[in-house]
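During the reporting period the student researcher (J.K.) took over the structure-prediction task from the postdoctoral fellow and processed the backlog of single-chain submissions. One of the processed entries is reproduced below for the supervisory committee.
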Amino acid sequence: MNLAVLLRAGEGEQHFARVKIPDSLPQFVPLSAAPKAKSRAKTAQKEQCFVWLEQLVTANLGALFPGMEILEAHPFHITRDADSEIQNLEAGDLLESVEEGVWQRRFADVVRVEINEAMPATVLDILVENLELERDDIYKLGGPLALVRVRHLCRLDRPDLKFPPFAPALPAALAKEAEEEDIFAIIRRGDILFHHPFDSFQPILGLLQKAARDPNVLAIKITLYRIGQNAPVVDALLEAVENGKQVAVLLELKARFDEESNIGWARKLEEYGVHVVYGLLGLKVHCKAALIVRKEGDTIRRYAHLSTGNYNSITAQLYTDIAMLTCDPAIGADCTDLFNFLTGYSAKTAYRKLLVAPATLRQRMQALIEREIEHQRSGRGGHLIMKMNALVDRKMIELLYQASQAGVRVDLLVRGICCLRPGIPGISDHIRVISIVGRFLEHSRVFYFRNGGREEVYLGSADLMPRNLNRRVEADFPVQDKDLIRVLRDEILGTYLKDKAKARHMNSEGKYVRDPDFQKKGALNSQEALIERAIKRQKLTQASRTKPTVSATAPN
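J.K. obtained the following structure tokens:
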């Protein structure tokens, strides 16, 4: 945010000044003499009134330019090009190259300028000339600029204006076990599925902390994409190194807008002796995987954590993601091959169970859709359910059109950009597209294939976009336990597909419309329904752990 200021000294000539509005300060300034809310309720909160920071600065420009006459002041907001190309041939040190790219952003080309409608042409001409703008880069707005700053209101201590907090539950496999039981023993009994934030992220952190201290753990390998400023995952990895474990971290420096944070963590990990790989030239590493190698008797066993989301304890409370803990030998072997590719030299192109981009994911996803088409044509009924952030890839969209034309039922849960249009006669009659925007950011990717009754489900990090399928390292993993497949199909996907309160349905023109009953009492809000289930499960868990034990003593 900036102010374009015209000023003059006495009767002299006019001067132009740019005043930067600091983004390090709160963008809303409270007014202390705010009136009380007109409410009869004794507990009514006091009304709070604010002015924008630029309004406060504008009202006090005389203090910045003493002795000058302030003629005009107009706000404007600049957006610069955030892309920083890293040339493969020139990037001998990827860390330094990304660090330089982050620095250069502040001098990058301006791609958008928001101005107030009241800004006169004379001031606008000054901006166009000095910022080297095209007229198409100018956006005139009637209200406040840079509305993204409204997020600062979330920091207010006003619980009455916020969602009620809830305590996330534990997955059923963990909830029924004793708290002190070895997590590795529980995983050996069967795969464990997590649906965050309804399920707690704490067991994942606990597993890494346990692995860091367990004398039988030999190595920990993990991919880190967005880990945030406060990273308990990193603390666990540093503790593992101090305890003599071999630790390898693929830390993607090119994670957009997290570069500075990741650079700092990369340097800290290196200082402790962690084997850090900064990413791969030409490919962004976006997969979410951790591998724990443990000696058990005379054998070596591999435990894997695979997820649709990042190892970030903050976003784990705000994003919906699905993860799995497993010690499946084939998946463990695939994870080993994947980390060998990421941290060393490997030309591996075939995997046992994982679908890995750019090696196998596109081809396998195409084959799975084509198989569903064949099931439909053979009279076995075809059904696809796909949940993702974005659907953009042309070839995948064409395949889904073909599936619809063959009669396959296609349910698409796409939170963001969707370039497929449903409901077009003869093309996409059997496709519906639903976008759900609610309390949490829908971030999980789920791919369900009915497969003639032998259902298959894959979860993973990849959306159906060219960048994910062609230019990123992604990993989709199978859910093999029949009970977990049922949970995904009925309790998770089924709940989303029944949403009426927060769902938007795309029509054949590509426009989104709300469900006619979205405001009716009792209209299903999928995220709220999942919260209620989690709360109920949490209460049952607590009740079972506090229930007194009754023992019978045999008579003498």
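The committee noted the following: Confidence is low (pLDDT under 50) at residues 39-43, 87-92, 549-556.
J.K. will present the remaining backlog at the next meeting.
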